[in-house]
Amino acid sequence: MSLVILLALVTALSAPVLAKDYSGTETVARDSYFSKSVSVKTTFLGAIEYTVTVTGGPHVDVYLFDQGNFDKFVANQTFDPELSDLDVAMATEAYFYSSDGTYVLVIDNSNRGTPLPSNPSVPAATVTWSLSTALEESTEEAAQWFGFAIGICIAVIVLLVVIRIILVVLVYKDAEKRGASGAVWLVIVFFLGIIGFIIYLLVRPKAPVAQPPGYAPPPGYAPPPPGYQPPPPGYQQPPPGYQQPPPQQPPQQPPQQPPQAPPQQ
Length: 265
Hints:
The chain is 31% helix and 26% strand. It is of the alpha+beta class. The protein is rod-shaped, with a radius of gyration of 48 Å.
């Protein structure tokens, strides 16, 4: 059963993920920023990944905001980003989200987060960036795959339970018919499943001889007692009123006289 559950989880996690990718090259002037917003929806779990590389000019600050904190950033207020890489020439991050919303990637060449680099050789920063988002299509598909895998798991478990119940009932009835303890074999097959069923088939007693249809025992018939042996071949039933003669006593032998010694001369 645990193997079935493991296979269900592997199937769900290996579902294909559909993602949307964005990329570009931007020149971000001094005291300005570049932003890219994406809207995401999810019913399971999604991810946003970005990579930013400065190919010329000063270092930059890279942020990933939700919409509320991005509005604070624009208003030059205190903000709390989901991810941040400050004063870097390259940044690669991934953020996992579990709710709907709008997220904004910001490449900043101002002093909103950190002081500007001192004496930059070129005031403007040239950056290449890429952004990948797992949107509604991928999360819904993952949820559908997960639900499908769980459904298969439940169906297999129910099928195994039904098969075990059928085996238990069959073994109980057959054991009672053969004169064995149906309750004992019921417990064995219930806990051991198909292994217990195979053991029963190997050790079950022989079935009694079935009587022909319509057979009824004669009046006064009683089953033979334990240990009864059938009569030998050729045995004839004695006639009615026959009485077994009393056992004969063996003939008595005369007492033996001790041998006499011969007379002496």
